[in-house]
């Protein structure tokens, strides 16, 4: 019997000689000091403990990795903030110094306004010390400037210096919630945003229908700066305003820079209703119609060739003549950019005259997407205009358009200019007045000889008159 149990203690006490313990309490106190027997854990419990230990170790290791990752990100953010703060501080210091110089110059020379040359030097220095943009566009895209309307209002060259940019006011002074939209702002800001969106869509149509994110940011900044300069009202391009560019486009990356998806979707919606009538696709859904539609589709996109050369943009798709003159191409140009006299193709004439290679390739790509919805012989509305696929198709179409122009650059430019003139006339806009031509070379030669003859005749007549006067004077003298 174990001495730790009550029964065992009693038996042990009885077996001891008398007088060694005064009573049972002394014996109990002595026996409680004996070490208790430890129970050995079972094999199952050991396995459970090992599993728990391994799980805790993995979690601890993952937490350590996450901590290191967050630590690196914090360092990068801190460094970026430091650079941005330094750039902004330099910009502000330069602006303050230039204001002091302007103030002293004005009072020293007793002038009421700074000279135009001083303002130009001031703006140039501000541009050099301004903080760098968040992202930069590629070599080709960065060269694209925001389109300007055909008619502009002239402003005085000695206007006041550009004021500091401020936050755009919200409608009724209330900060909006939810998805950004132009209606969140005061009416004049709303008009500025819409104008910037239109300019952005023109860049999409004439510079690059599939710009990358850095190009989108650069274009958004440029068109917003152009709108502010044209209205002489300067607001910051906030993240909310930038997201409006895309909301109106449908992609919602930025409010201005998201106009790329909207521009592609708008052109698609103009072309899709005319695909069946233009190319003779059947819509009754019969097996016979499906077979014919498949054959027609394969021919139009040149699907069976190793290096496809689509024929759907030719005026005569069977004879393959009339490059880029298919009726659907002309219809897309007119309905999308030349619907009336106030359309973008008229307002931003310099971007569309002559019709650019990028614009033609953009139309070709959109027509091909609409045809791809008939790949299996029936209309598939779930097929999407995905950028990751159709950007490659656009680049192929652009290469073919440029090859066509390279065969005879002068003739190709003349043809593209006639395309513009044709859709402009259809819009009802006033014709573009050509600059007044001077005299031709042949007319100049003929008039030069005539002037010389007139000058010679005038000299002889003056000599005769002078001689007659002298004779008359002599007769009176006699």
Automatic annotation (TrEMBL):
Q: What is this protein called?
A: DUF6532 domain-containing protein
Region described as Disordered: 1-46, 128-184, 451-478
Extract the InterPro entries matched here: DUF6532
Which portions of this protein are annotated as coiled-coil regions?
46-83
Domain DUF6532 residues, every copy: 196-404
Arranged from A to Z, the UniProt key words for this protein are: Coiled coil
Task: Look up and give the organism this protein is from.
Answer: Pycnoporus cinnabarinus
Lineage, top-rank taxon, reads Eukaryota
Per its UniProt record, what Pfam families does this chain match?
DUF6532
Renumbered to this chain, the Gly residues biased-composition regions fall at 469-478
